[in-house]
Amino acid sequence: MKYLRTVSLIVAVSYVGIVSAAATDGATLAQRGNGHGAAPCMACHAPNGGGMAAAGFPRLAGLPDAYLRKQLEDFANGSRANATMQPVAQSLSDDERDAVADYYSKLPVPAQVPAPPLKNDVAQSGQMLATRGRWSENLPACEQCHGPGGIGVGDHFPPLVGQSATYIANELHAWQGGSRHNDPLQLMQHVAANLSDADITAISTWYAAQPMAPKEQQP
């Protein structure tokens, strides 16, 4: 009897260890969730991490590890408000957030879906704001922080190219309205406050229409 209890204990401990390991595996979390509040990431961000443009769910594949980790923390603590992501982030442990961020940062960037052609006035306005800004209103160019072509710079300024117009516009409105306030030195809050709705449409559609550089796009 004592032997059976010992064997049962060993099996139970082993099972817990297997479950715990699975729960902190990034691929498992992305495909199945963690079973206690965090839904599968792929349900909104697609199996390849490319996001769902029509719904405004962003691409995660290929984004910097540290950036993804910070966004999960900020969703959990409320500095980036989102009714879908907040409960998911709060249901992930620290190890699980690390695992998810690491997993998506290492995924290849999916092939880009061509965006609809832009009207000339929208294209001109979007390009001007992205590359030159509007200094008469102390509005810097987007690429001063996000890099030429919106390729992203470091861990704090993510790529804009390769994201959908819906997602970019939603985030600019979130910065503008204060539901997102997790930017370094409040840079994005200042930028968004100086944008009109027409500006936001121009910037978001212009970036969504820009092709990714070959080294960034890895189908």
From TrEMBL:
Database matches in InterPro entries: Cyt_c-like_dom, Cyt_c-like_dom_sf, Cytochrome_c4-like, Cytochrome_c_Oxidase_Subunit
Keyword check for Methyltransferase, yes or no. Answer: no
Recite the UniProt keywords alphabetically: Heme, Iron, Metal-binding, Signal
Gene3D superfamilies, alphabetized: Cytochrome c-like domain (1.10.760.10)
- As given in the record, the signal peptide range reads 1-21
Q: PROSITE patterns this protein is in?
A: CYTC (PS51007)
The answer to keyword Transmembrane helix applying to this record is: no
Q: Where is the Cytochrome c domain?
A: 21-108, 120-211
Q: What PANTHER family does its record include?
A: BLL4483 PROTEIN, CBB3-TYPE CYTOCHROME C OXIDASE SUBUNIT FIXP
Q: What is this protein called?
A: C-type cytochrome
Organism, as annotated: Dyella mobilis
